[in-house]
Amino acid sequence: xxxIAHLRRAVRRHAHLADAAIAVAVFAATLTTAYGGRxxxxxxxxxxxxxxxxxxxxxxxxxxxxxxxxxxxxxxAEVFLAWSGSTxxxxxxxxxLIALYTVADxxxxxxxxxxxxxxxxxxxxxxxxxxxxxxGPQNLAFMALGGxxxxxxxxxxxxxxxxxxxxxxxxxxxxEREQDARRxxxxxxxxxxxxxxxAVGHQLALISVQSNVAGQALDSDAASAREALAHVKxxxxxxxxxxxxxxxxxxxxGESVAPTAIPxxxxxxxxxxxxSLRASGLDxxxxxxxxxxxxxxxxxxxxxxxxxxxxxxxxKHSGGRQARLTLFYARTELRITVDDLGGSDTAGKxxxxxxxxxxxxxxxxxxxRVLALGGNFTAGPCLNGAFQVSAALPYQPLDLAAExxx
Length: 406
Hints:
Elements: H1 2-13, H2 15-35, H3 44-57, H4 66-83, H5 94-106, H6 109-130, H7 137-217, H8 222-249, H9 270-279, E1 283-289, H10 297-317, E2 322-329, E3 333-340, H11 361-372, E4 376-381, E5 387-394, H12 398-404
Parallel strand pairs: 1-2
Antiparallel strand pairs: 2-3, 3-5, 4-5
């Protein structure tokens, strides 16, 4: 098998040399069978030899001009059979048979089959007219061999087309895999960016505000300064813990013990979040309406992140640091509303200003999370001037709901 494979590769690399070798082999076999037992060649025999040389030599260019080679080799073969005066020179017909194979292989399928079949029929008629002895089994054998050559060439064409299609499909599949991998990487990077913004950003906002409070109260109110610094210490510890979880998740496989996912908070951690913000000085009016229903994990995390980001924005930008959080459990969805009752300053409205992309990450991140689950999201000032964030989350994401639908 290795020898055959090596020969195939060699033929592909030196196709024209292989064709020339085939032409020489057919020419030698023809002369050997036709004149092997004769002592001299003369008269019409010389013309027959020249015809054989032309018919067989044409095979060297069969890949470049298949139709011309077929015509030349067929005509030369008939001239050789007519002039050689030998009944043993039928091997010259190998030249047009090889040309027939080439036409069926390289010419467009319908024209190639039509021309090949026509050539076989024409050669059979010529044999019947000029060589009546070939009307019998020899002529039938030639037509059968001609049909076999055409079928073999057509089969080679089909195999080549099939292999080309397989290669194209493999290349297309590889491109799709690469695109899918890039898409997954981009989605994962976006998810990590959102998690860092929502988790660590929340704690850093508390640290920033409490640091300002401590700085202002350091000389005049030592107790308030110590309380603010305690909040800074607590928020810093939580931020470092969440950042450590994220960095650990991003480590290479096999390095240390890494969790398979960052612990995802949900509405069960809402009381702790509200307590942290209230301890930092934010007055929160929390209302729950309707019968509390469980959410799917993705919706539960998104609800928590929307509340966390919205209240953090109120804490950073509100003039009076007063907020109202309303959770309304409807029949098919949870509706979350966060109102800034203290009145947002201009800094708080930068989240909606396209001229400051960095400041829009909070609003953009919340919208992306909610819309990804098939929910609705709005953020902006109300008629009374208060800034409001509103989100409606289905209890199950769209894909899970579709799977559970009868």
